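Help!! Second protein's tokens look totally different from the first
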Amino acid sequence: MQVLKKEVSEFELFYDLIFAYAISRIASILFVGADQVLSFKSMGEFLMLTLVFWTIWTYQTVFANRFSIKNKISALFLFFDMFWVIILAQSINVDFEKTHFTFAGATSILFFSIALQYYLKMRSTEDSVVKKLCYQLAIMLCATGLIGFITILPWGAYSIRFSVYAISIFITAFFPIVMKKNLEDFPTNFGHLTERYSLFTLLLFGEAVIAVANTIVFNKISIGSVLFFLMVVVMFLFYNAVYKSGIERQKETAGLVLIHSHYFIFVGLGLSLVLYENYVEAQIKPLFFVLCLAASLACFLGGTIVNMIIYTKKEHNYLPFISKSVIYFAIWIIISLLIQDFIPLFLFVNVVFLLFLLYKVKQELI
């Protein structure tokens, strides 16, 4: 099936702005307690909420990538969904149980809205492949929306209702992997898809700069804030290098690796920013910080490198690079544990490590 070339529209960018704001809002539930660590509960909710927003954004993005037509109906759906994403974003609360009614209700409305778009597309096409694909996705989204509404009803303990809600979101998020064959029969417009994900990640880096700004007082600029900013810059350069030079954007593919790897990229970026911000302000235990930072950077760097390997522009054996990178990462963790109490030195070593890894990636791309 021929895939026509298209660019990311102003409507799509407008839509992405509210999601970038929403994902940045999720960081508000990650607060450091009196024991100077992040609670496992808040970290679990952070992962869950990020999954919710990523899932909704991804389903709408992939629909626009495959089927979007610039007309009044598409625009109305877009603006309708944006309003409910705003409600969703404002429902984010440290005590998630208090806002579950609004949050789960809003996600259900959004899932039903996207399902309706797939249904209308199914009714308007004669292509059997497209019909089957739209039918399966519409049923999946409707089922998840229905479960979301059920969990806001007052039955059973909240922990049980939340677990049911979380499982339904997880299944919906990764259900396309099961549909890989059907999705490959009607591939994405991969150039448009990579551009959409990279631009959205760029918006998140914009939120990262705001996180740096939160550590700066107008009459006192610490070396920690400067190094924090450099960390954000190098992480951006790392992602941008892979996107610009490491991905073949003309591939005929379902794009499942690109899509699902970005969940880990978003999680890694968001969590690392919260950790850095609290570390610069000396509000978090250094040992806890180092261990959590290692996990978050593994998500961000790993998710980015996976795209370089899977969607490489030319056949290349990346195994030596992967093996060496794992060793470099292990050495960085060991050094970090030794200098964890010295904030400027630790941040400087972080910048050097990421610059070194960026250099190695560019060497591979050459």
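Here's the second one for comparison:
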Amino acid sequence: MTHSSGDDAMQKGSISLSGAVGMGTGVMIGAGIFALTGQIAQLAGSYFALSFVFGAIVTSFSAYTYVKMSNAWPSSGGIAMILQKAYGPGAIAAAASLLMALSMVISESLVARTFATYVLRPFEITSGPLVPILAVAVILFAFLVNVSGNRSVGLLSIVMAAIKIGGIALFGIVALWSGGFGFPEASNNADGFSITGFVASVALSILAFKGFTTITNSGGEITNPHRNVGLTIVISIAICVVIYLLVALAVGSNLSIDQIIAAKDYSLAEAAAPALGQFGFYFTVVLAAVATVSGVLASVFAVSRMLAMLTDMKMIPHRHFGMSGPILTHMLVYTVVLASLLAVFFDLSRIASLGVFFYLIMDMLVHWGVLRYLRQEVGANAAILLSAIAFDAIVLIAFTAMKLGSDPMIVLYAVVGITTVFVYERFFLSRWIAPNSESDH
């Protein structure tokens, strides 16, 4: 008995250009600003605002590959499509696609846990069982909204993106004006500026921008996809660069590096207090709640579709476990369960680190696949593709070096996880690279 992924649920043209931008910025701003600002400052020191600039530059090189491929072949689960066209339906394409899906699940848990951290901050609760409980609750809410259909997701994405982009911009402008313009004071505990630390921080900045891949994965549902997928990616990255820089400078103007690091899981709320008083503090908490909820919504929407496409492509096995309905609904359930488990068992720093390792390995495989097999077909520039691979590799090496010093166990978890994915897919599919009937090499 065969099952479809529920193409009736994947309605062509059901997401407008503005809805797609709302979805892309929803994932990016939800994770980037609220979850990662403090962690980036911990690695980059006084110049942490510049880390976002370098992150945007590296992301722009990466985005080039996805824009070229999406313009040629827009589809839901687009990254799986890119990898299969490059490597054929073998273990490399399947494993890299699964890494992407897992990195998106990791983002869900990262943003959900950030929601819990900010919402509990007014009650001075920074740990304990309430943090994972609230994180799981917001993931379940995202599941219920997603089950109700694309229109609900698109409309909520637009409304929440407008609220949070306007609100975060307002916070940034007022806090920057109040705190004065300038970089924060250096840490009293630091030995000085570290190039390795700064480059490692760019890995987290890249994670803050990786929401643009959500757009790629929903390409088949965006109106006029051959034009709008690439345009959505460019607009989303541009909006996020401006917002990230504004907020990083605002936080740095009101807190020292030591203060940012001490409050790294809720640094925006902490920065709002000296700049805007108690009202500013609560305003930031509400803003964080809206931003992170929209981030989880968009991420659950995209990753469930990617997993459904992988199932249709026979790249991952599927079991119903007694559930009725289309595969798409089953994938929503699996996504939510896995994200909830991560939110319960890992803190924000470790969740972000796992996301970096999974995403950068997958990203390099995408660029290499397009360079090696599809460059001529999509008209891509080899120098840009090679630069994207080189930037990813440099950042990943620096990040790994820093984590081996501060938290070697998370490096081990990442290596075990990535290796398991590749070995499992190799056994499941029996070949590393299989010829693709649509695009033979």
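Reply: Different proteins will give different token patterns, so don't panic. The chain is about 75% helix and 0% strand.
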